[in-house]
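=== Structural record ===
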Amino acid sequence: MEILNDFSIKEIVTCFMVLFAVIDIIGSVPIVVSLQQKFGQIEAGKASITAGLIMIVFLFVGNKILKLIGVDVNSFAIAGAFVIFIIALEMILGIEINKTTEAKAASIVPIAFPLVAGAGTLTTTLSLRAEFHDINIILGIVLNTIFVYLVLKSAKWLENKMGEATLSILQKVFGIILLAISIKLFTANFAQLVQNYINF
């Protein structure tokens, strides 16, 4: 019954809002539509459940896994930044870097990881654990997973509502935003990495 004692609506809402801001699935709609046009129908259920499981598993074993393979959180975040950078370049320049042609592959990479459960999201779950109880973080992740599923499921409808010209403009705009996020993620974690080595 200790889990029930740790249950807190306030903590759940806070965890949900923090993760919602980091995941930013609404802002990622043009990216999802772009990937859907490229790969075909995206498996919304598979992508959202995979992302949710990645976040929950990483919440408990993230630090252990990274330490086991000799990778720190900052290096992990930098790797994620590179993947996001490549996706952004595809959107802005209209080039094809990822040659995968299977929609199933797109559901896992890059949608489940790193678009939803990316380096920023995973490092955020670790930082939330320092402040909130596990049960509330898990429920926050589950609520975000449901919301992600609804957005991915309605991607086709959103694509039909957006004109081709509007979609093209939005893809480039969000591509630039995504590029900026990847650079920010890289610089912040690279600076921390350098600082850690200097202190070491």
